[in-house]
Amino acid sequence: MGTPTLDRASSSGRPGREPLTGEQRNAFAAAFIGWAMDAYDYFLVVLVYADIAKDFGVSLERMAFLTTVTLLMRPVGAAVFGLWADRAGRRTPLLVNVSFYSLVGFACAFAPNYGVLLGLRLLYGIGMGGEWGLGAALAMEKIPTQRRGFFSGVLQQGYALGYLLAAVTYLAVSNLTTWGWRGMFAFSLLPAVISLFLRSRLSESEVWEKVKLTQTRPADVLKQPLVLRRMLYLILLMTAFNWMSHGTQDVYPTFLKKGLGFSPNTAIYIAILYNVGAMIGGTLLGSLSERIGRRLTIIGAALLALPIVPLFALSHAIGFVCLGSFLMQFFVQGAWGVIPAHLTELSPDAIRGFYPGVTYQLGNCLAAFNLPIQERLAKSHSYGFALSVTIVPVLVAVIVLAAIGKEARGVRFGEVPETAPTRPASPARA
């Protein structure tokens, strides 16, 4: 199995306007909703971990480990579900995945103590790790080649939409009910059922079916030196990306409440605002990457985010805080809007279920200690200091790593060369 041709642009250099079929729309919607619900459940903990700490009588530093253990387990889910998807197709693993993480997320509403909740978040991390890689692979394999940039940007902003939904749910539950944080976890079951319904109506990926005919073994592809070198590079890139994202998001609601003294409702309104910025940035810059390239879009977004750091982390007036957080998430999630297309394009066809998700989630794993580190820095200095000293180096790292990398914009999935290595069918399959 050959690897994608690097730095290959589409023939026109411009995104096409080929309309989506019903099957393509359903595949994209299922991936988008699934990723949004993953993010929703993750950011529930970010928004309410101070409330949970109070109920369970544990410190904020210990409570922050709930997000860490979720991120640490995501590579496990990416590997398990990704390998399954490359062997058996995308559809069934995705159905099992969404059912698994939906039930685990719902069960969090009934956790009697910190230990049980920690175990459930560990399991949830496995489900969350499997969701992104499989959903992105299926969506990008079905989307027309010249529209990948736009739909990549929209798909990744399911993450911001999930955060926004968590913020809105927090407002509704805290102001209109007495359910507390448990009611927020219980609510997560409903949208997940919608995603499950959409996925049950999908057919298998045509790209995977073509690759299956070659009988190329994923293990053989993974042994190729170029594939391994690129995998190590992408893990480093995703480490920087995940630190950039979590470093600007996870501690920010606590910074607004504890660091700046804003009311919980005000902090949530600001979170809604900056997630709108994230969705706009991801969509616009994802689409832009189809014209100017994936790497150049990433570099430009990170460069423009650097001068925003003082406004984002050191402002005290609410107007400047709103502006800084909106602009920061516009550029941070704008850069992220490129990633679904970028990683899937750099993935060999035979391991596209495994490769993007594992590189993404191993980067997440290495960035998993961001929140505890920021909480510790905030305790010894201030939240503004903690945000500034962790964000600036990571933005620089994103710029450098994107500059030295490669891209495969416009590569056509499933176009297997005639010389692709194959293995003979076993007698049992003949």
From TrEMBL:
Official protein name in the record: MFS transporter
Topological category with respect to the lipid bilayer: Multi-pass membrane protein
Entries under Pfam families matching the protein: MFS_1
UniProt keyword Membrane, yes or no: yes
Domain (Major facilitator superfamily (MFS) profile) ranges: 27-409
Renumbered residue ranges of the record's region Disordered: 1-21
Xref: InterPro entries: MFS, MFS_dom, MFS_trans_sf, Sugar_transporter_CS
Keyword list, A-Z: Membrane, Transmembrane, Transmembrane helix
Membrane-spanning parts: 27-50, 62-85, 94-112, 150-173, 227-246, 266-286, 298-327, 383-404
Entry annotated with the keyword Protein biosynthesis: no
Highest taxon in the source lineage: Bacteria
Cross-referenced PANTHER family: CARBOXYLIC ACID TRANSPORTER PROTEIN HOMOLOG (PTHR23508)
Organism of this sequence: Jatrophihabitans telluris
Chief site of localization: membrane
Subcellular location: Cell membrane
Coiled coil, from the record: none
